[in-house]
Structures are given as C-alpha cells and as structure tokens.
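Record type: monomer structure entry
Structure origin: computed from sequence
Chain ID: A
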Amino acid sequence: MRASGVGQRIAYQRRLARMTQQQLADAAGASLGAVRKIEQGERTPSTAMLEAVADALGVDPSRLVDDRAPGRTRVHAALPALSAAIAAYDLPDDGPVRPLRELRAAVTEMADWRLAARYTAIARRAPELITELTRALASAAGAERGPLATLLIGACRSADAVAYKVGAHDLSARMIDLMRWAVPAADDPLLAASVAYVRTETFFAARAHAAGLRSLELALDSAPPPTQADQIAARGTLHMRAAVIAGRASDVTAAQTHLYEARRFADRLREGVYYGTAFGPDSVRIHSVSVAVGLGRDHVGAALDDAREWKPTEDLPAERRSGFYIDLARAQLWTGRPDHAFESLKVARHIAPQHTREHPWVRQDAATLRRLKRADIDELSNFAEWCAADPT
C-alpha cells in the first residue's frame, strides 16, 4: 500500500469525524507522532495499526486502503464465518486448544472490545475463538466443563454484539441460542441471568416487546437472592433492561416500576461491569433516558430534564456513553431542537464511532435532520453519508 494514499485517507476520515490528531491517537492507542507521520506519508501503518485507526474512526479498514471499497466490509465479511462457527458447535473438528488461562485472556480481551464498541476487532477474532472453545468443551470432562462453557458464552456474547449491531438479527438469535445451550454446563445462576439480559435483543428485533418483558420477569423470578454485589447487579440489570422494553411496549406502569427497582439495586453498588454488563447509578440514569424516549413524546421531557444537569463520565464503557447521546439526540429532535440533536449525534460518534454508525436511530435521525435543516448542510450531509442515512 502507498503510505501517502493511506495517510491522506486517514486524515480525511479524521476530519470528517471532527477529531484532532491527538484524539485519534488516544482512541487508537497510538502516539501522536505516529499518527502525524502516517498522515504525512512518512510511515506505513502496520495491519494492526490500520485496524486500530479504523476502529477509532468507525470505518472499515478497507476504506483507508482503497477509496472505492465499500464501508463496513470487514465486519460484514466475517458474518458467514461466525455463522459457520456456531453451526458446528456440537460437531467440532480436530485441532489445537490453548490452555485455559490463554482462552480466558482472549475472551476477556473480546469483552473489552465489546464494551468499547470495537466491532471490527471482534469480527476478526471471534470465529476462530468460538470454534476453538466448542472444540475444547466437546473434549472436556468433569470440572473443566464449567469454566469452558462460561468462556464460550462470553465469546458468543461479544460476537452477538457485532451481529446484532449490524442488523444480522437471525445470526444474533442463533448466537443467543448457543449461549442458552451452554448455560447448564456453566452451572452458574448469575450467568443464566446475564444470558436472559442478552436474549432481550431477539424481542427488540422482532418488536415483541410484551413477550420480552415477560421473559425478563421470569428471569427475575429465577435470579439468586441479592445478597452479594454480583447478585445485586444481576437483578438490577434485569430490572434495567425490563424498564427499557416495557417503555417500548408503552407499558408506563411496568417501565416506571422496573426503573424504580433498578435504581434501588444500583444505589447499593458502585458503578462497574458485572458479568459483562455495566451497572450502577450512572447506568440506570442512562437507561432512564432510554425509557423516556421509548415511552414517547409525552415522556421525552423527562429525558431532557434528566440529561440537563448530568452527562456520563469517561470511565463508563464507550458503547453505553454513546447510547446515552443517541437517545438524547432523539429526545432533542422530537422536542424541536435539531441543532442540539446533531451535536449529540456528533458526541456519540466521537465516543464510539462504530456503535453510532450502525445504530438504526442514528440513520433515521440523521435523515430527518437533513430534511429539516439548512444551516451547516455540508457537515450534516457528510454525517448522513458516513452513517448511510436514507437520502430521501
């Protein structure tokens, strides 16, 4: 590849994302000097560097190599391999299996990528890791099975995040079925609660909100008593998720009840990641905005009131923070504040480009803003093109 061409494309995409070189360097885990040299054509980025920069910018690496390559090909190209990996979960092939500690490190790394919305990185690694874990689980016996089943669920959860976020809902549902299959082998009630939380995606995708609410309430009935931190968080996350899907079902009473319960459990904990899900007072506050938006126009004022004096801090996972601004943008748009809505979408993009770009609400709202707005039309058009908003 020609360094100058790659550098020019990186610089173009960085300006499109309204990022400084320092911000790009921080997001990609690189030095400022390295970014400068790459953009100036003085250095050829390695494959790993190119992918890190692409993740930070929210574009597929191929966009930085070839102007004519379509966006998001790397993530979408990995979907058939993911599908093949889970199709053969009970018929694993022969092959090497790394020690448990190395498998655990690989799954943990992918979980970190999921929370940071680094979908390209997950898509690149997940098929082989899931295949290796199903191979390991098939040959395991006794006490080995529980930890391996837990790791398989964790890897599938990260892969599911990619499938669900890019709209591959059938593949996402199959991933969740595999997680549910592995839960008995893991023999961990809290992990069962975590999988029930993730399973709600299938109900969101099918718009079967009432059924999703029933599923979560059944999971709450089966959850362990909330005496320790992980148990408290398990119940709290289920209530938090139930509040959101109740909002989508227009069930005001259930939404408010579950949100109240989520706050009650969150007040007993510090904000953190429990069994792969961020939970605590700040996460519940973020979800209260999502609940208000889900309930509709009569409730969006509550979302704006909640967001007026508070913003998520940088120690929260990037995906969760960007979700807050995406929800806030919709509330602002619905209340006749298009300028504020666009600013919120830009903040979401800066925090987690890939999550923002793949979110259907972002595409819908960007298309609406383009129809409504005339000021800063070039910037808005660039944003709409970036997220593939409907041009009509």
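Annotation 1: Confidence is low (pLDDT under 50) at residues 67-71.
Annotation 2: The radius of gyration is 21 Å.
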